[in-house]
Amino acid sequence: MTDKAKIEMALLLPPGTRGVDGQECETCLGRLIESLEHYRGIEAIHVDDGDGRPRLCVHYDPAATDQAYVRAAATEVGALLAWRYRHETLHVEGLDCADCARTLEGGVGHPDGVVRARVNVAASTLAVEYGA
Length: 132
Prior knowledge:
Layout (H helix, E strand, L loop, with lengths): L4 E6 L15 H11 L5 E7 L6 E6 L6 H18 E7 L6 H12 L4 E7 L4 E7 L1
Antiparallel strand pairs: 1-3, 2-3, 4-6, 5-6
Helix pairs in contact: 1-2
């Protein structure tokens, strides 16, 4: 039986991948986890935010890889995500119904490069994720 190890580190998604209110984009977190699962020796990954500060928790096989490799892989993937995706939150005036919000989301969400557009009518904001 092989011993398993885990490492916890600060979540390594740079600010370019943060969504509304500076929170990490759930989609980008999923991309980070999915990408890291393919690296040698990494067996399980999850985000632990029990104390309000999100930390990446990576479980790995120390016979197949080491802590330096895991840290380097997480840093590399986080940097690639920050380079590939951007998030903007814009203030929008004049939204007064859900139909207006759907129309705006549909119009903004169709151009090439736009991954997702989401309107919050109550906050009068439009959150856009797009490729860099």
